[in-house]
Amino acid sequence: MLNRWLFKEVDNSALVVFRALFGLLITIEAFGAIFTGWIRRTMIEPEFTFNFIGFEFLQPLPGNGMIWYYAIMGVFGIFVMLGFKYRMSMVLYGIMWAGVYLMQKSSYNNHYYLLMLLCFIMSFLPAHRWFSIDAWRKPEISRISMPRWVWVVIVLQLWIVYTYASVAKFYPDWLDGSFPAMLMASKKDYWLVGEFLQQPWIRYAITSFGLLFDLLIIPLLLWKRTRLMAFIAAIFFHLFNSFIFHIGIFPYMSLAFCIFFFPSETINKIFLRGKKRFYTGNEINVPSWNKIFIGALAVWFAIQVALPLRHWFFQDDVLWTEEGHRLSWRMMLRGKGGRITFKVVEKGTSDTIIVQKEDYLSRKQLRAIPSKPDMIWQFAQILEQEYAEKGMDIEVYTEGKIRVNRGPYKTLIDPKVDLAAEEWQHFRHHDWILPSTED
């Protein structure tokens, strides 16, 4: 029964149109990073980047190499949009994007992680079988249909993302409107809407709408009676986010995904203008490797469901420790700030050197490091290595306090622990991160 449902052929108009839109958006993402100066600020100007721990071998290319790196990504994006050498282009863009994602986290964004997953998924989808240069050059690969599992994979992936984004909002500072109010306060100087966003009722509207939108948007798009209303709500929601929060291509990619929820015949008429015959067959093509494929899908989605839950297995609150925050769809949930001082002590002496962080870190890194334990630990390792090259065996200590959502300042890192001597543990709590309940 499951085989017959997953491998039944359905019209592929939504997939081929989405491929073109997706290719356009990832092209804009690549070239936009060049022309807005993001690459220069994030990859070229800093003395070093904070990699995902374990991926230190991924380093920015020297000189202007990262600009050329992104330019090549942009070319692959164009190829995806046109359906030219589609699989090769999608795979290479995905590998290059994953490399950048793992190379730095000063500009961490859950949307970057989502794009990495989507590149991986799109690499396997038959999105080039129509409306593409590949299909024009090799007519034998042309298809007007696709197996239903393609639609299932996309919808399930989106459902997981939106659901976890909603569930993460069920905490006091979101539910009472205090964090949305803080978000809007940071937009007070925005042209035209800055003062309007400070209205008291705005925080409660954002609180309710943001939570309910993420929780219900997929079911409402799936149900025919609420689909149009949900699509209008999605347009408002994502354009608001784009204008207010400047989060790149993600709002427009989310709107592009809505294509998969409307009837394929409608998508065919609107976007392909009769150039593609609408598929009306009922073929079922179950491959010989169906059990392996279904097993692989089950493993993929088990991982997608499990990863965002891992913070529950760490001690203390993820809002404080950051342990389990990444790869979990915890988007725009808290504001953190504070200060930190690094002290270097040569072993066997009492001589203390106060590290001038500005000599090492970019402005963006300086803003991020006080509240990120993993970045604090990494910086301690960098200092240890630098002083070792000078022939000095050192210890690294910190002093500082942070606060979450304008709460009271508290000490995050135990000032008595030599961070240079600590090992990083991916799967357990670090005792040198002090409890959030500290007085």
Give your account of this protein's structure.
The chain is built from 18 helices and six strands. It is an alpha+beta fold. The protein folds into two domains: 2-312, no CATH class; 318-421, no CATH class. The strands form two sheets. It has a four-stranded antiparallel beta sheet. A two-stranded antiparallel sheet has the order 1-2. The protein is globular and about 80 Å long. The protein starts with a helix and ends in a 28-residue tail after the last strand.
Instruction: Work out the strand percent.
Output: 5-15%
Q: pLDDT below 50 for ≥5 consecutive residues: which ranges?
A: none
Overall morphology: globular
Structural Rg: 24 Å
Succession of helices and strands: HEHHHHHHEHHHHHHHHHEEHHEE
Discrete helix count:
18
Helix proportion: 40-55%
- The total strand number stands at 6
Adjacency order of strands in the biggest sheet: 4-3-5-6
- Main sheet record: 4 strands, antiparallel
Mean pLDDT: 93
End-to-end separation in angstroms reads: 59 Å
Domain count: the total is: 2
Structural class: alpha+beta
